[in-house]
Design goal:
With about 290 residues, the chain is an alpha/beta fold. It has one domain (about 1-275): Carbon-nitrogen hydrolase (Nitrilase/N-carbamoyl-D-aminoacid amidohydrolase), CATH 3.60.110.10. The protein contains six helices and 15 strands. The protein has helices at about 15-30, 65-75, 155-165, 185-205, 260-270, 275; strands at about 1-5, 35, 80-90, 95-100, 105-110, 140, 145, 170-175, 175-180, 210-215, 215-220, 230, 235, 245, 255-260. It has a six-stranded mixed sheet. A six-stranded mixed sheet has the order 6-7-8-10-13-14, covered by helices on one side. A three-stranded antiparallel sheet has the order 9-12-11. The longest helix is centred in the C-terminal third of the chain and has 22 residues, at about 185-205. It is globular and about 50 Å long.
Length: about 290
């Protein structure tokens, strides 16, 4: 299956971001993509660098304006689109939500980000309620998609639960970058750790992984930090963790990658990790810590 990924810089104007995303989707479709994956919170700048109640105005309902626009585009181009939206569920209740749009323009399903970070320049707990939909893959015309969002990608449990329910792909829309005060060596270690842990999910579950990150520098409106330099590096890994494609760190990219889904079947026959799991010994995984 041909999978399109769109890595881009975001600007202040939501309309401009949406127009450029649409251009990218159209380009991916021209290159034959059947599935197009977008980066995390692609409609706007990464607003979680500060805590500002006015920024809740960026949120929208699902269904809403973005799902309608992407739905029309999916139907026109006959592609499945994985979006990432700031969801307004109710007054005072918001989520970081990935929405999968089917090729006929309907909503195939959604996933609400489960793990919510709270670190300098990533104050997501101020904006997002943790997801309550669980870890369940979404059925689409191109396969069963195990979609999670950014911080979820550090946790092997979510990837495993998706795999155990038949997910054929693990997909992570992402917004992550460098802390400017870290040394270049530490920055590179963090970027490589981000890739390594997700490649590990691919290996442990025998599934391809698609991670789509944003690129470019976004200033901190408060001036307390030097902002975030998003490290790009969007990539697609095969079921043995092999890198099928990696985008540059600092360039906008529209790429289409051919992924052989049948290869997962062969890899799982060679490495039958699911067969050999000692599930009767895993009770401790349901505890925060084992004293």
């Amino acid at each position: 299956m041909k999978i399109g990924i769109i890595q881009h810089r975001c600007v202040q104007e939501v309309g401009k971001n949406l127009d450029r995303i649409e251009e990218g989707i159209r380009e991916a479709a021209r290159q034959g993509a059947r599935l197009v994956v977008l980066q995390e919170l692609h409609n706007s700048l990464y607003f979680c660098q500060t805590e500002n109640t006015e920024l809740f105005d960026l949120a929208e309902t699902i269904p809403g304006p973005s799902t309608e626009r992407f739905g029309r585009l999916a139907k026109e181009l006959d592609v499945v689109i994985v979006t990432s939206l700031f969801e307004r569920r109710a007054t005072g209740l918001y989520h970081n939500t990935a929405v999968v749009i089917e090729h006929d323009g309907t909503i195939a399903g959604k996933y609400r980000k489960m793990h919510i970070p709270d670190d300098p320049a990533y104050y997501e707990k101020f904006y997002f309620t943790p997801g309550d939909l669980g870890f369940h893959p979404i059925q689409t015309s191109v396969g069963l998609l195990g979609v999670q969002v950014c911080w979820d990608q550090w946790y092997p449990e979510g990837a495993r639960l998706m795999a155990l329910q038949g997910a054929q792909l693990l997909i992570y829309p992402t917004a992550i970058g460098y802390e400017s005060s870290d040394t270049p060596e530490e920055q590179e270690r963090q970027r490589e750790a981000w890739m390594t842990v997700q490649r590990g999910h691919a290996v442990a579950n025998g599934l391809p992984v698609i991670a789509v990150n944003r690129t470019g520098h976004e200033a901190d409106p408060s001036g307390q930090t030097n902002g975030i330099q998003f490290w790009g590096s969007s990539f697609v890994a095969g079921p043995q963790g092999e890198i099928l494609y990696q985008a540059p760190k600092d360039e906008e990219t529209v790429a289409v990658i051919d992924v052989d889904l049948q290869r997962s079947e062969n890899v799982r026959r060679w490495w039958p990790f699911l067969r050999d799991r000692r599930i009767e010994e895993f009770d401790g995984l349901c505890k925060r810590f084992i004293d």
